[in-house]
Amino acid sequence: MKREKSEALFEKAKQYFPGGVNSPVRAFRSVGGTPLFIQKGKGSHIWDADGNEFIDYCGSWGPLILGHANDKVVDAIKRTVENGSSFGAPTALENELAELILGNNRYIQKIRFVSSGTEAVMSAIRLARGYTARNKILKFEGCYHGHSDSLLVKAGSGLVTFGNTSSAGVPESFVNETIVVSLNNEDAVKQAFAEFKDQIACVIIEPIPANNGLLLQRKEYLQFLRDICTENKTLLIFDEVINGFRIGFEGAAGYYNIQPDIITYGKIIGGGLPVGMYGASAEIMSCISPEGNVYQAGTLSGNPVAMAAGIAQLTECLRPGFYESLESKTQFLIQQIFKHTEQLNFTPANLKLFSVGSIFWIAFTDKEVVRSAEEIDADSMKYFRVLHKELLERGIYLGPSGYEVGFVCEAHTEDDLLKTAKAFAEALAVAMKA
After folding, report:
1. Pairwise CA distance, residues 86 & 240, whole Å
2. Which domains does the chain have, with CATH numbers?
């Protein structure tokens, strides 16, 4: 695979940006080599600066559910931007996208558009604190909620702990308001509520954790969180920035039929453009300024170009059979991968492909299910490092980390999936031998 232009661009980028990138995971630190500089994408394929073509399963980390440069999304962007890119004032497009979302989601009554998933979660935490008049939040090890200070906290050594900062620059005072417990551990949650009675404003969880592996949770566990939050007058936040609109239009709330108090969504509602959203009941959302005293603002909130792209994309997601087709493609891909490994007389016991909807994750483990971060063997990432390199050589692009998930989009064809399965089997054989 040619990399001369990507390598030259990366050398130049290192003069401008820390580590040569504008987001850490892009640096290829986990998999080695030079990051690929992507030049264009169309449908299920992307091309880098050297002209290498790949079948893409990253999809800008999930939001491109229709694929790259979808004609309807692109047309909507072009029509809208011709009238102006930003006004810092209301537009009818905000109403149209809000009506599309709220008219097809039973779990929220009012929403607020923001500019990113991080901003959506940060705002949801502030709303929960304002509504409950409490300060402490409870999060789970293995769930990522963006890079705001209160949430850049990892677990400490105890069953229930205030944790430790996972980034320099986060004051200890912020860490002391964040309680961290393990996923899938009811006793730890009960202990936290006992130790900090009437102090916890909210419990925040990725109901389908998909940023540190695909840590599928039991419905009974999510219902337990719902019940204990209700008992303690604590708000339950579902962070659906990654999984939202990926497994169904109502996301994990609809998939599990569990009512959270606040839900956050990310760039999928803007066709991949910078946008986020949080929503709740009309009562809770009435606390947001200018109606209430919880302040949150943004010049680019409800940006018309992002709204238009979101309307175009989510309208397609509402077509009958859309999500069933995506899940069918995902299952077909997984089945074909194992079919090809069998043809190579190679079916390792310590290889699993977990999936839900159109999200999948490759795990080098002998466990039948992985529900918590502690169950992921860090040493297994050595296999992914080789796998990623071998897949690139065979024209398959995944996010450059074994902790990240992959995404199937509407644009993936049967031919794409068959080529991918064959490449996967060959690459896995090399990885396991290495």
Report:
1. 26
2. 4-69+320-433 (3.90.1150.10), 71-317 (3.40.640.10)
